[in-house]
Amino acid sequence: MRQTNSLYTNRHGQRPLPPVPEIILTAENDNQSDSSNYNTTTNTVNTIELNKMDAEKQEAKNLQMEFEWVLKEEVHQLLKKLKVVLIECAHRFPVPLYENEGKKTEKFILSVSPPEQLKAILTLTGDTITQADISFKLSKPPYQIQRTSITQDSPWKLQQVQDAANHLQQAINHIDDVDDSYHFKTSDEVLHVIGNILEALQRGRLSLIIPKKKPIDELIKGRNMKCLAPNLSEDLAVSFYLQSHKLIIAVYQLTNIQGTMRFDSCQAEASVNWLNEVLLFLTAGLQLCQQLKDKISVFSLYKDFTVGSRSSSALSY
User: Fold this and answer.
1) Is the pLDDT of residue 45 over 80?
2) CA–CA separation, 12 vs 15, rounded Å?
3) Cα–Cα distance between 92 and 100 in angstroms, integer?
4) Contact between residue 82 and residue 285 where contact means Cβ atoms under 8 Å apart
5) From the CB of residue 151, how many other CB atoms can be counted at a distance below 10 Å?
6) Which end of the chain has fewer surrounding CB within 10 Å, N or C?
7) Would 15 be classed as within a structural domain?
8) How far, in Å, CA of 185 to CA of 152, rounded?
9) Which of 48-62, 243-257, 270-284 has the lowest mean pLDDT?
10) Does the residue 83 lie in any domain?
11) Strand, coil or helix: what is 263?
12) What is the widest separation between alpha-carbon atoms in the chain?
């Protein structure tokens, strides 16, 4: 019998590898899961940020497009509309203004109750009182009726009418200074033009609704007092003025009481139709200006907004 090789008969069996602990497998799986979740979250955040950036870019693009349309189209449309309103206003004035011949003549009766206290029958031609019969009762002895008049030889000028007309003409001139083909480039340009028009209209409106107040001594020595015939004594003064849609006459009587000067006043009024219409048109013009100013002011917050500040592809609208 052949002898068996001890090399084979003496070999021990191979030791099996120890099992991998479950905690290690679990940790590896958790790490893989965390990594996957992190990548997913990161991708989601990046997508949201990109979408947000795209939305902001689109919003800015849309705003820029609207801004350029306002500068190119809407500003000129509003100026044309505003000019129509102001010309209609000019045609209501009783003085020559923007192709309006003016010199409209109206008669008014201004009185209080009882009429003996104060009454004026007058003719208003344009911005001038060309004739008036004035009577009022003195507030001190002998309490008699004082009479005076205005004649065509020495008419009484209502400066408020001419002032308002001048301011309205300035507003129209500011519109005419803008050529129809001019392309505004920035919001500041528009705000400058609208600001000039607004200021002129505001001055015109205020000159009609808020008369300038004068001290009693200035009224007594005023130029218009020389229009009265016969002249009044130095302790009496008459004043004609406009306030809103009314023509008003006021009589002031100075009294010396124990060395202290005081004055009594009485006034009468009459409504003037053309004044009411003028104020309505001026208010409409101011509202149109304010609407455009508010819209342009929104775009002026974006200092980088100028015509052509976006890509050429965005200009095709």
Assistant:
1) no
2) 9
3) 8
4) yes
5) 13
6) N
7) no
8) 54
9) 48-62
10) yes
11) strand
12) 177
Examine residue 212 and state whether it is found in any structural domain, yes or no: yes
Nearest Cα to Cα of residue 161 among 102, 214, 218? 102
Instruction: Give the C-alpha separation, 98 to 172, whole Å.
Output: 9
Task: Please name every residue paired with 228 in a beta bridge, in sequence order, or none if there are none.
Answer: 150
- As given in the structure block, the two tokens for residue 294 are 């508010």
State if pTM tops 0.90.
no
**Per the domain annotation, does 85 fall within a domain?**
yes
- What digits encode the pLDDT tens for the residues 224-259? 999 999 999 989 999 999 999 999 999 999 887 777
- Measured distance CA(233)–CA(255) in Å, rounded: 12
pLDDT of residue 314: 30
User: What tokens does 51 get?
Assistant: 């979408």
The alpha helices in the chain, defined as continuous H runs, are 6-9, 22-69, 75-92, 159-176, 187-209, 216-220, 273-299
Single out the residue of 272, 231, 232 nearest to residue 129, CA to CA.
Answer: 272
Spatial distance between the Cα atoms of 14 and 42, rounded to a whole number of angstroms: 49
Q: Which domain holds residue 200?
A: 66-301
Angle in degrees, CA 193, 310, 81, rounded to 5? 30
Contacts of 243 (CB under 8 A, 6+ apart): 209, 210, 211, 269
Number of domains in the chain: 1
Q: Other CB atoms closer than 10 Å to residue 71's CB: what's the count?
A: 22
Yes or no: say if 65 and 314 are a contact pair by the CB < 8 Å rule: yes
Q: What sign does the CA torsion over 171, 172, 177, 181 have? A: positive
- Cα separation of 124 and 258, whole Å? 41
Tokens 């006021």 locate to: 250
CA gap 270, 107 in Å, rounded: 10
Amino acid identity of residue 261, one-letter, is M
